[in-house]
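Sample pair:
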Amino acid sequence: MMKWFEKHNKTSFFIALIIASFIFYMSSQPYDPVPTIKLQLKSTIYHIGIFFLLCLFLMMALSKGKNKEWLSFAILLSFFYGVTDELHQLFVPGRHATIRDVLTDSVGIIFAFLIYYITIEWRNNKNTFKKDKS
């Protein structure tokens, strides 16, 4: 499935834009949270998951599965978006910026990088092994 998104990198980029728009929309929603463990767990899962997807689709769109040098750009772009998202929340009633959210976003970004990088390496080694056998 990843190969399809790499081959159709414009689709991957479009999905990344949709995810970024969704993050912006969710961050624009004012609320008066009642701090509970359950709410914090949902928030943590949301931050890790949404930034995992954002970074993954950015990496597939930019690297196309071949150019590993674009991976660092996708990581930095995802991290920068996480920071600006928190700054944006300073202007939303009932919301606030937290370093905790930026760190949680970073966990999702790092997971996306590790999974994608390992997948690329595995694919490249598999293809090299097939060529050596021929």
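DSSP finds five helices and no strands in the chain.
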